[in-house]
Amino acid sequence: MAKYIKREMADMNGTGQSQAYYKMEITRNVDYHEFIERCIQHGGFQRSTLVGALAHVGRELALTLAQGYSVTIEGLGTFTPRLGVRPDMDQDSFEAGQPSHNAFALRVNGVNYRADKELVSQVDDHCRLERGASSRLRRSPYTEQERIAMACQFLREHTIMHTADYARLVGLSYTTASRELCRLSQDSSSGITARGRKSAKVYMLSTDAGRQ
Question: What's the pTM?
Fold first, then answer.
């Protein structure tokens, strides 16, 4: 029997009330070999036939997606290739005078998947839920203005600050700290600015704040 987790979601609309959402508690991962055994047990397939068919489907799916198609497999869902800029290349824009990337700078960095409604319906039909754990938000004991002041003081002493530093400093979860720093770095009145992106992103005092 599967378990569900009730989680608290931050108040993003300023209503003063947090919201709850639910997710499945994933007990463990069923790997390829165990999944094959399950298919043999429930479907009566020959192992060699099933393994060969799955391998062929995987290869054909990759070839078809690479040609710029999306693929819908009835009962499973739709697969669509996703493009991104190579990690060693900068993001471009539509601003006048800015160079535009060519095909060399791009790569397939993922495959988007949208589940077939019939698959979702079957999962729901077979699913029997029971209550699992609850997860509450980790709230900082400091006000936002106090957190900003603490971050600025940290930056005066250490020059740069990572998201993990801010999370430990003000008592927020990493995800909430990351979201708050992103917002603060876009607000010139906070005195905090950002440099880099993704895992290499760091925060510093803005020029005006550094003079204070």
Answer: 0.60
